[in-house]
Design a protein that fits this description.
The protein is an alpha+beta fold and 436 residues long. Strands 1, 2, 3, 7, 8, 9, 10 and 24 form an eight-stranded mixed beta sheet that branches. A seven-stranded antiparallel beta sheet has the order 18-17-14-15-16-13-19. Strands 4-6-5 form a three-stranded antiparallel beta sheet. The longest helix has 24 residues, at 408-431. It has helices spanning 23-31, 69-73, 80-89, 92-101, 121-134, 188-195, 215-219, 256-259, 262-269, 286-299, 305-308, 317-327, 341-352, 408-431; strands at 5-6, 12-19, 39-42, 63-64, 106-108, 113-116, 138-140, 145-150, 156-160, 165-173, 200-201, 205-206, 210-211, 224-234, 237-248, 252-254, 274-279, 354-358, 360-361, 369-370, 373-374, 379-380, 385-386, 392-394.
């Protein structure tokens, strides 16, 4: 199959050049040849799918098992009105079909997260890499794009750092955001798109751990709590309230519950100080918890608090010791019968409202994704093209779309790549134009 022509001056021409060999780029590049497009995929790294291979801790949360499109898009509250068209063309259900027909069985785990049965991100990569190669998409590695210019006829010229020049009727930018920059996501795409006249909202870390300067939190590093209620307060008013798993770290807190709250918390921090409040017994009110503590104290009245109190939190003794220390440095050595009613009540309140300040989020290198990117009103979501340049496709994390963890980011990539590749293929088949 003749993939590209070469002009008299040695410039190679294509129907579609895809810049970025991540999930959205590979999905789009592999789809376009179905319509007859000649495709070149340019990747700045020395391998395709560098971030895909490590996503989900190497397990790859490939999508989310919410198969109703409207219910799925409810997880994209600020973008759902834009996304209905592309997700109607390729949804989470289609992702199941795509991968399973290619011999990769999927499994659904907690919170409807979907993984390959093998639990290996490399297996996901191999499927999508084979898909790219199936129709002889030309792949060039170590090809960092330095210049992207629109030609007078609406096509584009692309130049790489090595000096190579390519021409295409259409270009798809799938360079990702700026999360995990060590994988090549350094914001190059934003620079190219801005120079073409698009508006870029400044990226920020998203789905990212939160920081605190409370040293007692740092000392709990490694302790995890399941099914806790976590609230975020500003000016003593509850602004965010969620329930789930929390992980204490050497810098603050993490875990699915925290990661999926980070976008809202960061917005709160822009307006002022924020406190995190953990309810260790979300299903027990203060009176019942006090009664439970009194019964425990009655049973062990002659023992020291440090030996009795941890029975209320048997799986996290370290946390129990921390709570005692926060309450009163001498309380741990007190015998239970010497604990006053006031001290007991304070302990109850502490367990129902373990409070500490949030000082910020970690940086891009610790973020799962970033928000920011191309303003959505500047995109035609029916085919993922720019409203400024109809032959420019913008995919995946390059778009200014906030979303939670749980497979939603990769599904956005699969969907936008499919829609763009389908459109590029159709246009190549209809026009049969070969740019010079």
């Amino acid at each position: 199959m003749d993939l590209a022509r070469t002009t008299d001056i040695g410039t190679q021409t294509y129907d579609l050049i895809v810049i970025g060999g991540g999930p959205s780029g590979m999905r789009g590049a592999g789809r376009a040849p179905y319509g007859g497009a000649r495709v070149l995929l340019l990747e700045r790294n020395n391998e395709l799918g560098k971030k895909l291979k490590i996503t989900g801790g190497g397990r790859c949360n490939i999508t989310n098992a919410e198969l109703d499109v409207r219910a799925f898009l409810a997880h994209f509250p600020q973008a759902k009105e834009f996304l209905f068209s592309p997700f109607s063309q390729f949804s989470a259900k289609d992702t199941f079909t795509f991968f399973e027909k290619k011999g990769l069985p999927l499994v659904t785990e907690a919170r409807d997260r979907v993984f390959p049965r093998s639990q290996k991100a490399m297996d996901v990569f191999r499927v999508i890499e084979k898909y790219v190669k199936k129709h002889n998409v030309r792949v060039k590695l170590n090809a960092r794009v330095t210049t992207l210019k629109q030609k007078d006829d609406g096509g584009f010229s692309v130049r790489t750092a090595s000096g190579e020049k390519f021409i295409a009727r259409a270009v798809a930018i799938a360079t990702g955001g700026v999360a995990a920059p060590e994988t090549g996501s350094t914001g190059d795409g934003f620079k190219m798109i801005r120079l073409l006249g698009h508006t870029i909202n400044t990226p920020n870390p998203n789905i990212v751990p939160l920081k605190t300067d409370a040293k007692w939190v740092h000392k709990l590093s490694g302790v995890s709590l399941s099914f806790m209620k976590l609230s975020f307060l500003q000016n003593s008013k509850v602004k965010i309230k969620k329930t789930g798993k929390i992980l204490f770290t050497h810098f603050g807190i993490s875990g699915p519950l925290v990661l999926n709250s980070s976008y809202e918390v960061r917005e709160l921090l822009e307006a002022g100080a924020v406190d995190a409040v953990i309810d260790l017994f979300p299903n027990t009110d203060e009176n019942d918890l006090d009664r439970k503590m009194r019964n425990l104290f009655e049973k062990h009245k002659n023992k020291k608090m440090k030996n009795v109190f941890p029975e209320l939190l048997p799986k996290v003794k370290k946390l129990a010791e921390t709570i005692l220390a926060l309450h009163n440095i001498d309380l741990a050595e007190k015998e239970v019968h010497s604990v006053t009613r006031e001290e007991r009540k304070k302990l109850v309140k502490k367990m129902k409202a373990l409070t500490f300040p949030i000082t910020g989020t970690l940086c891009f290198d610790k973020a799962v994704i970033t928000d920011g990117g191309v303003v959505l009103k500047e995109i035609n979501f029916k085919n993922m093209t720019s409203r400024i340049h109809p032959n420019l496709y913008i995919l995946g994390d390059v778009l200014n779309i906030n979303r939670p963890s749980g497979g939603f980011s990769l599904q956005l990539c699969w969907t936008t790549g499919f829609v763009a590749g389908t459109d590029a293929g159709k246009k190549a088949n209809i026009t049969k134009v070969r740019l010079q």
